């Protein structure tokens, strides 16, 4: 079912162009994101802006009056794209002057583009979440003309070059004879209107660049490369059109101890040979839990992994925490004094069942320390 564009602006089907423009300006002043930050108001602002763009375009308004929806038909296509011939339109335009019909003027009020901001966070900030105040430099609504682009009570005038059509045509000779082509009007940039007395602050664009500070709330569990979207905090569009979104991209900084793999955390523990044989406890300062005890069981072998469930990073969507993995490295002393040597010799004589074995090289551990292997596994470096 076609959308009720007249109802969105609160005007009747017989409304004049000036009545439609006045209705849009009234609603835009009430719903613009810079004036009304409510998300519902932002959605309504985008709807009324789309309605104004449609009803201010004679061809699109004619489609509405016939019961159609020009915005839906533009994206639906007919096998060749939109606008009748779509993908073949450029060919027909080049040889027959516009593919059987003109494009018509484009709306002066257009949606703004999205903006991207990169934010560096350490592992603790990614784990707990954080609210940060950042400074952004974007286009905002001109406070002098409220997006109209005109100075005082002046109004736009029809372009004398294209006579409001938004495009100009030219005839050229070719091997096929005379060829008529169309292109956007160079004077009004395809709008069909010019502003004789533009706003002194924005120069007729309806927006100005400004530096402003906004608050960004980063949820717990975010990871490197994830983006947080702030609706309608991007660039205000030409003519005071609805603002795009601001995307904040997280860049997680490497941690001195922990290596992250999704919601799990990995770290290395160097344990003396005697402690690995007899068993011990090791304390580590966990990201969210503070001092945490790691049990190294008696007889722990090199390369063993001790896992603490639920002590890792929170999942950004569910909040369920991953696991904390302690990779045990057994440290064998390289220098022994006389007493150490004698004690180990007695232990060797006592443990006669321990013998040296030759095993396949396929079972030998790969070279490099734990951190080197972990970084190759989890970061590809």
UniProtKB/TrEMBL annotation:
Residues 129-211 form the CR-type domain. It comes from the Bacteria. Residues 4-68 form the J domain. A zinc finger (CR-type) spans 129-211. Its main location: cytoplasm. The keyword Lipoprotein does not apply. GO terms for biological process: DNA replication; protein refolding; response to heat. Zn(2+) 1 binds at residues 142, 145, 199, 202. CXXCXGXG motif repeats lie at residues 142-149, 159-166, 185-192, 199-206. Binds 2 Zn(2+) ions per monomer. It is found in: Cytoplasm. Belongs to the DnaJ family. Participates actively in the response to hyperosmotic and heat shock by preventing the aggregation of stress-denatured proteins and by disaggregating proteins, also in an autonomous, DnaK-independent fashion. Unfolded proteins bind initially to DnaJ; upon interaction with the DnaJ-bound protein, DnaK hydrolyzes its bound ATP, resulting in the formation of a stable complex. GrpE releases ADP from DnaK; ATP binding to DnaK triggers the release of the substrate protein, thus completing the reaction cycle. This is Chaperone protein DnaJ. It comes from Mycolicibacterium hodleri.
